[in-house]
Amino acid sequence: GAVVSQHPSWVICKSGTSVKIECRSLDFQATTMFWYRQFPKQSLMLMATSNEGSKATYEQGVEKDKFLINHASLTLSTLTVTSAHPEDSSFYICSAYRDSNYEQYFGPGTRLTVT
Amino acid sequence: AQSVTQPDIHITVSEGASLELRCNYSYGATPYLFWYVQSPGQGLQLLLKYFSGDTLVQGIKGFEAEFKRSQSSFNLRKPSVHWSDAAEYFCALNAGNMLTFGGGTRLMVKP
Fold first, then answer.
1. Residues of chain A contacting B47 with CB distance shorter than 8 Å
2. Who among A42, A46, A103 is closest to B98 (CB)?
3. What does each C-alpha distance from A68 to A16, A19, A34, A63, A111 come to in angstroms?
4. Least Cα separation, residue B80 to chain A (angstroms)
5. Tens place of pLDDT per residue across chain A (115 aa)
């Protein structure tokens, strides 16, 4: 199957700072990538759809000024959590959508802890 | 709007026993359905998918699932569970290019 990487796999930051998470599609080009958030023992919650070369589409209730998404190339999308607070601590997972087989390929996730 | 329901939050089975995880969906068109597995602190791994054709689909790790349109179900099965199967399982439906996930079922395996 296709490979999607995320970096970093875990990060600890202080409250008020910003953190950038990278999502890379390693062996196919993805015009669409997705960012999810997962709380402990819960399902994945879609945060936003990242489209290459255009603005991301955010789900209702997700602050676009807090969670900045950039999809500058067909293999890279970034999520920046700005002015992070402890309540932003979570597991963030990205996926890349491959049009040819209608599948999303998931990254391994990034554990963010804000102290 | 589409939805996916996994009625069982937790399931415990003995190693070697058979397993069935339930998934029901609601969607106005022909669904593309997926089962994913997630180990703690990890991303999602695709077990199997249904797009069309044969309603019984085979996946990795000995899993299979059966699509039943009349029951709006896509239940996951395995004839003999191994301790390494303990994980969280998610059923998902593809609408357009977006996935709608069920709430997940946590599988625990007794020795």
1. none
2. A46
3. 15, 10, 13, 9, 17
4. 25
5. 679 999 999 999 999 999 999 999 999 999 899 999 999 888 999 999 998 888 899 999 999 999 999 998 999 999 999 999 999 999 999 999 988 888 899 999 999 999 9
